[in-house]
Amino acid sequence: MPNFLLDPGVAIYAALAVALVVWLGIFAFLWRLDQQARELRRRLDQPPRAEASAPRATLEVRNPHPNARAVTNDE
User: Which residues are CB-neighbours of 68 under 8 A, at least 6 positions away?
Assistant: First the structure.
């Protein structure tokens, strides 16, 4: 039985099975990629929705040093 796959009658079916699995894998990969591209295209074509403004961060000085100054970019 160790030469089961070397038999010409079985080897061709084993090769066909391997080729079929590879083609099915390629098909599944391309189908999944197409679905993701459609979803991305759908999301990009939608008008942007109005989102609530994000809260701004505030800095609070704790234990201030007498000579320390807070530096901010706000004008």
Answer: 61
The answer to whether residues 61 and 70 touch, using CB atoms and an 8 Å cutoff, is yes
pLDDT digits (tens, 9 = 90+) for 26-50: 999 999 999 999 999 999 998 877 7
CB-based contacts of 33: which residues, under 8 Å, 6+ apart?
none
Is 74 a residue whose pLDDT tops 60? no
Report the C-alpha gap between 45 and 3 in whole angstroms.
Answer: 58
> Model-level pTM?
0.53
The Cα–Cα gap between 8 and 22 comes to 21
